[in-house]
Write a structure and sequence with these properties.
Blueprint (H helix, E strand, L loop, with lengths): L2 E6 L2 H11 L3 E3 L2 E3 L3 E5 L5 E3 L2 H4 L20 E3 L4 H11 L4 E7 L4 H13 L6 E3 L7 H9 L2 E2 L4 H29 L9 H17 L4 E8 L4 E5 L14 H11 L3 E14 L7 H12 L3 H13 L19 H10 L49 H17 L4 E12 L2 E12 L23 E2 L11 E3 L2 E8 L6 E2 H9 L8 H6 L11 H10 L3 E4 L2 E4 L1 H9 L2 H4 L1 H15 L5 H21 L10 H4 L11 E7 L7 E4 L3 E4 L9 E3 L13 H10 L1 E3 L3 E5 L3 E6 L11 E2 H6 L3
Parallel strand pairs: 1-4, 1-7, 7-8, 14-15
Antiparallel strand pairs: 2-3, 3-4, 5-6, 8-9, 10-11, 10-17, 11-14, 12-13, 12-16, 13-14, 18-20, 19-20, 21-22, 22-23, 23-24, 25-26, 26-27, 27-28
Helix pairs in contact: 4-6, 6-18, 6-19, 9-10, 9-12, 9-13, 10-12, 10-15
Length: 731
């Protein structure tokens, strides 16, 4: 009798499976016993060939060769992992191998990894599919008990293959077409380009924003206070007055005058417990509360899943559990570390787990259930600090999801004085419910926002319609409307997840429910890719489109920048996996779309002045960056003869070949908390001598540039960024 070969996605997973099966003998790239042999990939071992590997003529990028639309895109072995591929190929095709088990990650990409290896190796052996969401020993045993024929996942593979080939067709054709059109290296992607469009749109909203002054007026009635509002029947009445003068006029009118309560209502409300985490919601909270990037959260969650055996499969898009998971959840809660045990009893009143449709719903579980701690004893003290913080988020969310709602009385009071209305709201907690699971004390967490005027966290006095008071004092507060905030990983993930839902077409909104740009497993990589190619930049927690990113989107047709279009593709891929749509029909549409992009680049793309790409001009030689373009109206401050010019990383003098050393790096001020330098900022500095922004003041002098954070007196105590120092280092 021959062996069964099990192929895992990573060595760590392979070793766990081997331990459970008792495969203790070591071979070359494998572990085995008499009946089973466990081997592993190292992620992807096989990928699609590049165009120049299909045909020699594609080595040179020529518009005449586009579009490139092969009927079949052959596979190739990835050079960096070819040694491991050879070992795997030999093992799965060995005469003593009877059959295989696919044990790659349980999802679309994991399926693709196995099937591409299987195809490339020309393997004909029958195979089964191991589908597990947790790396505990018991979960692995359970997976083997429930193992299914590989053919049950053929539709998932078709979806994965379509994703892979669609990215190739769109990316290869559009990147070549637009690179040739603008003579600068441009990376265009089916998913990354609409994600970039979200960042560009937010940047333009911020740049185009025109602040408007407004004022608010609050009044004290002795034992409570209220804020002025316009009683026009709107659901969200306006509390803004157009200016300070108007607010002060009303304040003068009502001060010392009698006031009467016209509305006094109290309603019992419930705040439902939060749902369990899927990957995207975990990434959002980890960014918002802990400052983690989406990519860092994914890597930490993967480590807690694979190495620590502390979390279930993290790359999930579901926030629900199937009913058969209820006993597992009970076991999980009983095995949580000691610090969580005080919160467990409330999840199981009368010894039975509190279950609701917000947590358990089999119809809303796809490939994987929601993210949970495992039913495995773990010691968080042995984790890294970041692993511990992320595990804590998941553990507390899991507990809170099974708690009762928070119940409270919401009180709304309207007080009228001299024809003007003032609103007061209050909240009195009756049952704390899920708020009894407190967040971990962590200095990185955001501080709680203080209550605004007219809001009361303390109980309000007993008030009834007709009660009277006197306006004892008033307060006028001046303010300016705020621009939209830059995207963070958290807000961009939300925008990607809900892409297309702002469409005017109700049918599209209905169809796209639950889809968006990318998948939970790929969104972090998309964000990092935008930064890598220079279309976006991260500063602290914020993400901003760069100048190149803005130009990139301006060059593209709406069809490739549209979140709605990408959401439709993701929805189509889901339908292929569900056997509701044809893979061939989808790829035919992608081929037509790729042809459209090539034609658009040739015939309809706008004239945009991208900086010259010296990497494309230098016969393949490496270049430090993009060629320079002049900054209008800015003469060199050092030699006084040259023109300030801009590259992708810095501003410098056009007479650098004649020896002028003026160089100003775009990120030269960021280490001191200042902004990245842009063309617009440089032009304002050269014109006005200083620029005041949201973070502080930038000033120019003959010696150099200085930045003074808000709240410090000018001149800054910080060493200025001198022209000479900046020429040799990012000072």
């Amino acid at each position: 009798m021959g062996r069964i070969v099990i192929l895992a996605e990573k060595p760590s997973v392979g070793r766990d499976i081997a331990r459970v099966l008792g495969c203790r003998e070591r071979g070359d790239g494998c572990l085995y016993n008499e009946t089973h042999l466990v081997t592993w990939a190292v992620g992807h071992l096989v990928t699609l060939k590049e165009p120049d590997e299909l045909d020699e003529r594609y080595k040179k990028w020529r518009a005449a060769d586009l579009p490139i639309l092969p009927d079949d895109i052959p596979l190739k072995v990835i050079r960096s992992s070819s040694d491991q591929y050879k070992k795997v190929k030999a093992l799965i095709n060995a005469p003593e191998t009877d059959s295989l088990i696919c044990a790659t990650d349980a999802g679309r990409e994991g399926e693709l990894i196995f099937r591409y290896i299987y195809r490339m190796a020309k393997c004909q052996k029958p195979f089964q599919r191991l589908w597990i969401s947790s790396m505990t020993d018991e979960a692995i045993r359970e997976g083997f008990r429930a193992i299914r024929p590989g053919a049950d996942y053929d539709a998932l593979y078709e979806s994965a293959r379509c994703r892979s080939e669609a990215d190739w067709l769109v990316g290869m054709n559009a990147s070549r077409a637009f690179t040739l059109r603008y003579d600068t290296l441009l990376s265009v992607g089916r998913v990354q380009t609409p994600t970039l469009a979200l960042l560009v749109r937010r940047r333009k909203e911020i740049e185009d924003f025109k602040p408007e002054q407004f004022a608010t007026l609050s009044a004290s009635f002795g034992d409570y206070s209220g804020v002025w509002f316009s009683d026009d029947g709107k659901r969200d009445p306006d509390t803004h007055l157009k200016d300070k003068a108007e607010a002060e006029a009303i304040a003068t009118q009502v001060k010392g005058k009698p006031a009467r309560i016209t509305v006094a209502e109290t309603k019992k409300q419930r705040e439902l417990p939060p749902q369990l985490y899927d990957l995207t919601s975990l990434q959002r909270d980890a960014n918002r509360l802990l400052g983690f990037t989406a990519d860092k959260t994914l890597k930490l969650a993967q480590s807690l899943y694979e190495q620590r055996k502390a979390l279930t499969y993290p790359r999930t898009d579901s926030r629900y559990l199937p009913p058969d998971m209820i006993p597992r959840v009970v076991q999980t809660f009983q095995l949580l570390p000691e610090s969580y045990q005080p919160f467990v009893p409330a999840t199981m009143p009368e010894g039975k787990l509190r279950v609701t449709g917000r947590v358990v719903d089999a119809s809303k579980v796809t490939d994987h259930h929601a993210l949970l701690p495992t039913a495995n004893r773990v010691n968080p003290a042995s984790f890294t600090e970041d692993e511990r913080a992320l595990y804590d988020l998941v553990a507390r969310r899991a507990l809170a999801a099974f708690y009762p709602p928070c119940e409270y009385n919401a009180t709304r009071i309207v007080t009228e004085a001299e024809g003007h209305t003032f609103r007061t709201t209050g909240r009195t907690v009756l049952v704390n419910g899920w708020h009894d699971v407190p967040p971990m004390e962590n200095p990185r967490r955001q501080k709680k926002k203080p209550p605004e005027d007219g809001e009361s966290e303390a109980p309000l006095p007993p008030l009834s319609v007709g009660d009277t008071r006197t306006v004892q004092s008033t307060r006028v507060k001046e303010d300016m409307t705020k621009p939209p905030t830059p995207h963070t990983d958290a807000s961009l993930l939300s925008a990607m997840e809900t892409a297309g839902k702002e469409s005017d077409d109700e049918e599209i909104v209905r169809q796209m429910k639950g889809s968006g740009i990318g998948t939970p497993a790929t969104r972090a990589a998309i964000i990092e890719r935008l930064i890598q190619v220079g279309y976006a930049a991260r500063k602290g927690k914020t993400l901003n489109a760069t100048d190149k990113g803005v130009q990139m989107i301006a060059a593209m047709p709406e069809e490739i920048t549209s979140a709605e279009m990408t959401g439709r593709w993701e929805l189509a891929l889901e339908k292929i996996a569900a056997k509701e749509q044809s893979a061939d029909a989808f790829l035919s549409g992608i081929r037509r779309f790729s042809s459209f992009l090539v034609e658009y680049a040739r015939e309809k793309s706008p004239d945009i002045a991208f900086p010259e790409d010296t990497a494309r001009k230098g016969h393949g030689k490496k270049s430090a960056g993009l060629a320079a373009k002049a900054v209008e109206g800015c003469r060199c401050p050092v030699c006084r003869e040259g023109q300030v010019q801009e590259t992708d990383r810095a501003f410098s003098c056009s007479r650098y070949r004649q020896g002028c050393r003026f160089t100003l790096w775009k990120d030269g001020l960021t280490r001191g908390g200042g902004p990245a330098l842009t063309t617009k900022l440089i032009q304002l500095l050269w014109r006005d001598g200083q620029v005041r922004g949201s973070t502080g003041v930038i000033a120019i002098s003959p010696e150099g540039l200085s930045f003074t954070p808000n709240g410090q007196e000018m001149p800054s105590a910080k060493r200025p960024l001198t022209w000479e120092k900046s020429s040799s280092a990012k000072a």
